[in-house]
Design brief:
There is one protein chain. The protein is mostly helical. It has a domain at 11-72. Helix content is 23%, strand content 0%. The protein is globular. The N and C termini lie far apart (34 Å). The mean pLDDT is 76.
Length: 96
Amino acid sequence: MPAGTFAVASLWDLHRNPDLYPDPEEFRPERFLGNRPPRGAWLPFGADTHACIDGQLAFLQVTVLVHTLIRRGQLLPRRDRTRESATAPARSPSPS
């Protein structure tokens, strides 16, 4: 890529790539049992120098949340297929 090009990795598209995950729209958590996805195929908290500094804490919190929900109720997938994303400005505004 040319210098100055702005590029964004779409984790939504990566995690739904049928070459990496057969039937990616199917909820099949067993696909992760006994084997690890190829390097770079699962990036829930970013990667490399742009990884979330609290990724391990977030993973623990989600694990506790899911266990609690499973014990107390029923998990159902969302019916709408909306995509949510977050972006950051190219550079921070100068301090006042």
